[in-house]
Write a structure and sequence with these properties.
This protein is mainly alpha-helical. About 55% of the residues lie in helices and about 0% in strands. Strands 1-2 form a two-stranded antiparallel sheet.
Length: about 375
Amino acid sequence: MAKKLDNVSKGSKNDFENQYDSTWDDEDDEEQHDRTKVSKQQTHCTGRDLYAAKDMQKYRHMCRSIKYAERSEDDEREMFNLRFYQNTIPSRPDGLFIQDFHKYWLHDYKKLENTHSYIQWLFPIQEQGVNHCAHVLTQKEIKFFREDDQLRRRLLESYRLMLDFYGIKLLDERTGKVGHAKNWRQRFENLNSHTHNNLRITRILKCLGILGFEHYQAPLVHFFLTETLVEKKLPGVRQSVLDYFMFSVLNTSERKKLIRFAFEKFESKEQFVWCPKRIQRRFLKEIKTRKAGNPETHPSGAESGVPRQTLKARKQKGTGQGLTSTEKLVPIFQFLFHIKFYDSADDDEELDQVHSEARPHTQPAVFPKLD
């Protein structure tokens, strides 16, 4: 009975941890999420950062509710973000135009690290940041950004500016694929030691989703998941990747792929709290099925570092292909050894038997070629 209650308790805890994650639901019940309040006591008793889950859920719902009406309350508001990106007003309090940032701040890592008032101007979102001189993005501004090519180009330059600061390079403008910049080792050190950049990256991901670069989100998150969970180069970013970055991705299908990737690469799977247990059980079943169907690519000892021999390698061994020069000489020495003990070269039947024993079974009556 006690065991049954314990299982119920674990199930309830997991359901609570995932109440703000609609990745696996239809995401239609917005009111249910908005009514639920999170206490500090509740956040301490669970493994997932529920404030982060709530924040990212709110962001995704906000993006879904963006509308472009002919007239709205935004018409009465000054469009500071639009004018800044049109290069007609400077940022505050820094007093810099958008083109100044792109021209003079690129590679100036000291300024980019120590100044905290520019990120809200470069990547405006529908939330107030710590710089109260910056302005919340309006729906009318969103419409302009998504439709104006010049604004999109300048936003892309801002993205490149920050990627370079983090040691990352945009490899494909069409897909958003990213990779390591030449100086990535030094920049990764800065990322690990200055974790406030995790908040900046979260803002950048949100901005990309709002202003028409939604397809850029998943490639950047996948890059960070790889660097944290696989390569283990960014331990200082790991928690933010799981709590914030993954759930900024607006495309539900892409978000599911990222969560699955994170689960597969997460070492202590019993501690994985970023999707419901029912989904984790499905993942484990699919992984087991895939391994059973592909024993050559997923042998039992592969994860422990035991070298594995593929089917192709075994076939090559049977035919003599893929062998070293010394290995190829072995059957020849065997053949010569047997000839020495035969008195008559006319005894073709016995000599043919020696040939057969000296050569690999699948090899025709031709000696292996030497390197």
